[in-house]
Amino acid sequence: MTDRALETRFLSLEESLRLLCDVSQETLQKARQLSSPGSDRSAIERAILDGRAQRKKLEDAIVRAQSAMRSMRAEMVRSLVDDYGMTITAVAKLMLVSRQAASALYQEASASSANTYTRE
Predict the structure, then answer these.
(1) Quick check: 117 and 99 in contact, CB under 8 A?
(2) Contacting residues for 113 by C-beta, under 8 A, at least 6 apart
(3) What three-state secondary structure class fits 83?
(4) pLDDT tens-digit series, residues 50-86
(5) C-alpha to C-alpha distance for 81 and 68, rounded to whole angstroms
(6) When comparing pLDDT for 48 and 33, which is higher?
(7) pLDDT, tens digit, 9 for 90 and up, residues 24-46
(8) How many other CB atoms are found less than 10 A from the CB of residue 36?
(9) Domain parsing of the chain, residue ranges
(10) What is the torsional sign of CA 101, 105, 107, 108?
């Protein structure tokens, strides 16, 4: 079950990062087109109006990627402690974070796993 949980977190992170890259590329392409010489004024005005939606899309993709990264890190901590017998202190040293941060990640993953098991 643990390997599946960790794999799920990795796949979620991969998907989130792919979305972030796609949205970032789309945003940059639109900006590049508008900055080219001879850009149509009406196109620039439309882009300014569409800019809010594009920024929101980019912000949402960033938040999603950050959330997926945190979930993956939390599951890694839980796996190292529960499946491989490491202490939270040892995991914290390995990850270069405080013991409190590692403990918070462990608790987050444990709570998430408990919720998953009760739903199945």
Answers:
(1) no
(2) 5, 78
(3) coil
(4) 777 878 888 899 999 999 999 999 999 999 999 999 9
(5) 20
(6) 33
(7) 888 778 777 777 777 776 776 66
(8) 7
(9) 2-119
(10) positive
* 78-102 CB burial, b ≥16 within 10 A, e <16: bbbbeeeebebeebbeeeebeeeeb
This prediction's pTM: 0.70
Per-residue DSSP letter, 86: -
| Model pLDDT for residues 82-107, shown as the tens digit of each residue | 999 999 999 999 999 999 999 999 99
Retrieve residue 85's tokens: 């017998």
- H-helix segments, 36-87: 41-82
* Phi, psi angles (nearest 5°) of residue 40: -70, 135
